[in-house]
Give the backbone structure.
Amino acid sequence: MKGRLRSVLRFFYFAFSTTFGISGFLWKILLGEPKNIAGLKFRRRWLNHVPRRLGLRMQEEGTPCRDTCLYVGNHIAYIDPIVVLMYVDASVIAKAEISKWPLVGLGAAIGGTIFVKREEKSSRDAVAKTIREALENKMSILVFPEGTTSAGPATLPFRPRSFEAASLAGVPVQPIAISFESSKVPYIGDDTFLPHFFRLFTLKEIRGKIVFGPLLYGDNTCETAKAWIDNELTKDQLTTKFHECTQKA
């Protein structure tokens, strides 16, 4: 009962905070502030309080790149971009379906998300060009190159377009390994947003780990990033199983 009440209260907090932030963004636009600056302020303010109020508790390892960078991570659920953006400033590449989610889609768009229709080659080509131009203009990008979510432990095949854009722009790629303790986190199969949200946020805390890897340069960063992330996820899974066995003993 407590868990259900917690998830309902968190949903209303999420909805109110997002709506309030969007209203502030629109007000700033009316006052003449550039959209990109107002959007960045909206994103930073939202990230400063909402994730923690929703119960996100992440353990950080490694050092996030502070220069222009292509951040690439494994993809478990819609909270992954939130987790990464708690540590870095970047525009997120996301599937076009999210743009249609009530409130979430609008908030993401205002915060600088770039939507792509992955089934359309023309859209993928346009986004690859946009990524390269953004990186060349000193704007970092966050992408989940699997193209969809998975429960792991290993990642699905990576799509190479964003890596090629980073190479052409002359910026590094930083792999990021994300993991969570609870099996309620993965957003997979027939999951839809609201039922998953209310199920996930019954948890008192959503604990996990985010590991920032080495900066990668060159033409084979796609394969290298995937191998590094898979290795980190495997290590984390083995550590978790070891602790579980120790506690049972």
Summary: The longest helix spans residues 2-30. The chain has a mean pLDDT of 91. The helical segments are 2-30, 35-53, 80-85, 104-110, 121-136, 161-169, 193-200, 221-248. Residues 47 and 86 are 6 Å apart (CA to CA).
